[in-house]
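Hello,

I think I submitted the adenosine monophosphate job twice by accident. Can you confirm which output corresponds to this input? Input:
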Amino acid sequence: MKIYNTLTKRKEEFVPLQEGKVTMYVCGPTVYNLIHIGNARPMIVFDTVRRYLEYKGYDVNYVSNFTDVDDKIIKKALEEGSSAEEVAKRYIAECRRDMEGMNVRQATTHPLATQEIPGMLEMISILIEKGYAYAAADGTVYYRTRKFKDYGKLSGKNIDDLEAGHRDIQVTGDLKEDPLDFVLWKPKKEGEPYWDSPWCKGRPGWHIECSVMARKYLGDEIDIHAGGEDLIFPHHENEIAQSEAANGVQFAKYWMHNAFLKINNEKMSKSLGNFFTVREVGEKYDLQVLRFFMLSAHYRSPLNFSADLMDAAKNGLDRIVTAADNLRHLIGHGADGEMTDAERELFVKSGKYVEKFEEAMDDDFNTADGVAAVFELVKFCNSNASSENTREFLAALLERLGSLCDVLGIITEKKEEILDREIEDLIAERQAARKAKDFARADAIRDELLERGIQLKDTREGVVWQYQGQKNRQ
Ligand code: AMP
Ligand code: ZN
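Support: Only one job matched these inputs. Its output is below.
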């Protein structure tokens, strides 16, 4: 399997630090607003990378943070007369809701910057001890950028060019030794959240958060570090400088960056005001369509968002879901008994599309070609499956299609069917609780279902349920 590594600027064979295991850190959003569909791109792309690594048999430890203390969050809190904590809490919940809609799986750990302050104080102290950082007179702690000999190795920037650029914009009264130095810890301002530290009451800089969270949850050396391409400089360059100076080992082996999502061929961003939130798009389309649209391009290619492309994604997705539905329907009518020899031969033939899919994904996660292979499998299923077939054959095809869709995070069962099954499981659990005279649990389940708008009725035929305002289901 090959991964394009931003650090070496070429595709490299993927060899994890520890056999069978992958540690992966993905920079998460700053939570001061609903996420926009540009922010959704790294979420979907790297969730798919994780799913494929798991499909290949790796045990993946996936960490993605929420930046919950930041100028923008504080500004928003001041505007609405609430606290930074309250703003962050709200938008983390909203972000999780969007992630669920896009079928982005929960990370192994979603650390919050505000919960990791002791680790940040510790790393900053180590950097000071080693001479890589210093506290200025006002208590601000800066990283001594020039001291880190490899500075610029990720972004390919030359430190002297950077210095020339910075000199023009140096602010008078700046207490830095060098304009290139960046902040690790800054003093609080009136009304801002703060923590005690040996240098001043204040809060961390953005870059130190990720270095600390990656080390705490994944270790000094990690396999993959990822994010959008705008993070290469300065964020990831600074993370490398901090982590490698503090830990004394290479920080991340592979650096992956997604290209930008654009609109009218311009970068989509909050500051330009030309963005759509995931929530807005979710009002018009199932968020599965957004996911499928994102995966229709290679993650390192810019992608332009348009209604036409979304409609094309919707049609493509429908084709896949319909094929899976059709297989499920046929299974209900299929013949008993083992696969026939002819079916076995056909099934082996369908393996060609799995190979194509894996070939595409092994080539730096080329989901565009991966999706094309899924379409070929769909076509194969549509032309080779009928109610004349054995159930075993049909189920094997469905399983094959389902496993590829699962890598892409595409759900092939209609939401309603999944919901129905969940509800029926809960009802069965409630019945068992009643039988065991665990009435507290039984009542809790009834309440949970009521909260989801589902009413239960005990009838002579057993329990029937209905969405409020709908007819009974059994
Ligand atoms: P932020 O909340 O700005 O820190 O962004 C969170 C993540 O979204 C980062 O990995 C960014 O690189 C990424 N991102 C922001 N805008 C876009 C965009 N238009 N296209 C792709 N990725 C983006
Ligand atoms: Zn980060």
